[in-house]
Amino acid sequence: MMRSMWSAVAGLKTHQLEMDVIGNNIANVNTTAYKSQATGFADVLYQTVKNGTGAGQALASTNAAQVGLGSKVSSVYTNITKSGSMQTTDNILDLMITGDSFFTIASPSGEELYTRDGTMDIDANGHLVMRSNGYYVKYNVGVGMIGNGEAPSIICDETKTIPGSATTASYWKGNIDRDDPDLVDGRNISLEVYGNDGKTYTLKFTVTDNADDKNNTYQVKLDQVLDEDGNTVSGGYGADLLFTYKLNDGTLEGVTEQGRMIVSVVDNTITCDHILYPFPTIPRTITGADGKSYEVDFAVKEQDEGYSVVMNSITDSTGRKISLYDEITTLQYDPVTGQLVQAGEGGSTFTYEFESPVDETTGEKIVDWEIGPIAFDFTGSHITVPGSKEFTFNFTGDAAAIGPLRVDFSNTTNYASPNGVSRSSVYAYKGDTKGLNMGYPEGDMTGVFFTDDGSIYAKYSNGQDRLLMQISFARFANAMGLEKAGENLYSASLNSGAPRYGYVTENGGYLSSGVVESSNVDLAKEFTDMITTQRGFQANSRVITTSDEMLQILKGLKR
């Protein structure tokens, strides 16, 4: 049998396989993120008809004579590095990777797969999944609410709403007219703020002329706090303020709090609120661990670096008194805001452990009191800052939901109106002068959006957004070594190398939303390859027919 016939048969098989690859490429010309394939051929075993010889003294060297036995498919490789064109869908859940990254997918069997197909969806349980098969899209652990374990899925009870944030800053702006007649009875100023509970509260201030003979001092009082329904919120609103303006230019000289320190016993804890002042003796009665009453006398003293609490004495119910001289606790206050920084070694509370003094002669305790720890709480205390143009309101009771509110009054002035219309025009605004710390109410989720680094954020009705999760991306040392697993998925192989996880933005990549990656099949190339494949198949078939004719001629020689 002639070798040419078998070589042609091998050629037919290889061209048939190449045609299969071309047909698959054309079939997937509109498949999302499909990567085209190409076939590589190689020749096969050769039969040596004549061996080559080396040169001799009288003869030259000769080449070997070899006859090939056809061709074979050496490779079917995937053109995975070439990106398809961008196709707009306007669906935010359609994603496209620009760069060399892959989405990481969790298959039902637990195997990790990889894809460039970014057609995603959110299932009934709120998970991000592939739209084609429902496989879960993996995310980075430790990033966002889902990665940190704060929420089980993108849409769930934990993510459907966002709690409100309290307004922590405010500022006043405008002019308090020196000749404004309304300042006698008081001019009202309203400020709308958000509380820690996400609700809206309205603060009602009154500005009066301080009822003195000075035309540059004014009293500001927070009279009332209203809830969203207009009902008065009970609680303490803070002390009254005294504004003092410079007579020469009408600018604010300083804000002074009008109030005194309040020391009370709450739940057997000595509590100090409002303005802290040096005071030599402050007696308060507590209940000891033994159930008996004791009078604790202490002092507040001013020192170089702030203030200190000094224990003076303890007296029992019978009048027995023990003097104390060496128990000092330092109080540190912020020199700018006047707020407490820490009491003692940290925090805003501290305790004093009473130990009975011992008689030097007998070595016995002078008294046998079971007082237990004496607790002090200076959380609500602050100091007056000279020349300060700000004040922090601290709320108590039901109004405590508002939280501390720092108000900046430096943008107010005190001029007489030049046009004869004596009317003050001062207003209060939430947030600071840079538009920060305004707070926001509770919000409901209105949608999600993706950023170019693969982060998924939730959008809320209050204008806020929150990071839900970070999509996990993988890269490979040899992406062309990935094995196709069907449904636009790939699996890692020995030749692809292990996945390297990271952000899509590495190496200049990014993620786009509202678009998908089209197939990278080049129809012009596929049609050209189809023509050459057809001609190659045709030529191989002609070799078979020609070889057959030659065999027929050889057979006819017998006649």
Q: Can you give the mean pLDDT?
A: 89
Spatial extent as radius of gyration: 43 Å
The gross shape turns out to be: elongated
Biggest beta sheet summary: 7 strands, antiparallel
What's a concise summary of this model?
The protein has four domains: about 5-55 and about 60-80 and about 520-555, no CATH class; about 90-165 and about 445-515, no CATH class; about 165-240 and about 395-435, no CATH class; about 275-380, no CATH class. Helices cover about 10% and strands about 40% of the residues.
3D structure, described in words:
By secondary structure, the protein is mainly beta. It folds into four domains: 3-53 and 62-81 and 521-556, no CATH class; 89-163 and 443-517, no CATH class; 164-241 and 393-436, no CATH class; 277-382, no CATH class. Helix content is 12%, strand content 40%. The chain has four helices and 41 strands. Strands 7, 8, 11, 36, 37, 38 and 39 form a seven-stranded antiparallel β-sheet that branches. Strands 21, 22, 23, 24, 25 and 26 form a six-stranded antiparallel β-sheet that branches. A hairpin with a 2-residue loop joins strand 19 and strand 20 (269-275). The longest helix is centred in the last third of the chain and has 34 residues, at 523-556. The radius of gyration is 43 Å and the shape is elongated. The two termini are 20 Å apart. The mean pLDDT is 89.
